[in-house]
Write a structure and sequence with these properties.
Blueprint: E1 13-19, E2 28-33, E3 41-47, H1 62-70, E4 74-78, H2 90-104, E5 111-121, H3 123-133, E6 156-160, H4 169-175, H5 189-194, H6 202-208, E7 221-226, H7 235-244, E8 253-258, H8 271-285
Helix pairs in contact: 2-3
Keywords: Hydrolase
Pfam families: BD-FAE (PF20434)
Domain BD-FAE-like: 29-244
């Protein structure tokens, strides 16, 4: 159930197609506020997937947005430049610019700029993770895009099935006997993202990896991955978890391989699973494990 096909008429307070930067028509976001309360509301920023080449801020499963606002969160869904328009690092530039815009306009929209979570799946999970780990990395930011007085720190990440290390994906799929094993091809989403075949640009691949920037300041992570995901292998999430554990306490990481799941969103948006996510978020935003 994508948002554009779901019934959101009962969401009384929403602000659509807000421009957060001026370099591209893609740089827009939608804000959905709870029907009740004056705020400031904790914020969930949704980053859509789509292999970096497709997708849209309305191409988000409606269950996530509706569950968020019913639980008292402001939910903000963002667009960013896709690879048919520009290559890396434009995508992470856009995500960080959106975060700074949200913080700069927090009073206008009744948002709590000190309680911001990023949530995404696939390419969205990758961008959420890179946002979280590289918030202080100047080379992966463009302050000229606006609201430079604000930082792009966030308080936590919900990473569903995000890629972490482009160079290990095919070998991991082979290990699991899953096909197709095409990530090392020059036409793969990852090669198109960086503008070069990944096996010929290993230094750039390292720059792109969220794992590269994990530190003591990295915020809490909620990580889930389908064991039978044949697009992004579940071992990518194991790599992320293992690297986080070098710096983070165990209670700041939730990690789960969904044993019977693939890459299908329906495996992730069950009522039971969404409840797991929001228990984690509630703990973060009550500052029990928040690092920022």
């Amino acid at each position: 159930m994508n948002l554009k096909n779901s019934n959101i008429k009962f969401i009384k307070r929403k602000y659509l197609n807000i421009r957060y930067a001026n370099q591209s028509n893609s740089q827009k976001l939608d804000i959905y506020l709870p029907n009740k309360g004056s705020g400031p509301f904790p914020v969930i920023v949704l980053i859509h997937g789509g292999k970096f080449s497709e997708g849209d801020k309305r191409n988000i499963n409606g269950s996530v947005i509706l569950e968020g606002i019913l639980r008292g969160y402001a939910v903000i869904s963002i667009n960013y430049r896709l690879t048919k328009e520009d290559i890396f690092p434009s995508q992470i530039y856009d995500v960080k610019a959106a975060i700074r815009y949200i913080k700069s306009n927090s009073k206008k929209y009744s948002l709590d700029k000190n309680k911001v979570i990023a949530w995404g799946k696939g390419a969205g999970g990758y961008l959420c993770s890179l946002l979280a780990t590289s918030s202080k990395i100047k080379e992966l930011d463009n302050l000229k895009m606006g609201n430079s007085i604000e930082n792009c720190d966030i308080q936590g990440v919900i990473n569903w099935s995000g890629s972490m290390d482009f160079l290990t994906m095919d070998s991991q799929l082979k290990e699991s006997n899953l096909h197709p094993q095409i990530h090392s091809n020059e036409s793969s989403p990852e090669s198109i993202l960086i503008g070069e075949k990944i096996t010929k640009a290993m230094d750039l691949v390292k720059i792109c990896s969220p794992i590269t920037y994990i530190s003591d300041n990295t915020p809490p992570f909620f990580i889930q991955h389908g064991k039978y995901d044949n697009k992004i292998p579940y071992q990518q999430s194991i790599q992320l978890r293992n690297e986080l554990l070098k710096y983070k306490k165990g209670n700041s990481i939730y990690f789960e391989i969904l044993e019977n799941a693939t890459d299908e969103i329906d495996d992730f948006v069950t009522k039971e699973n969404l409840n797991k996510v929001f228990v984690f978020l509630d703990n973060i935003l009550k500052n029990s494990i928040c690092q920022n």
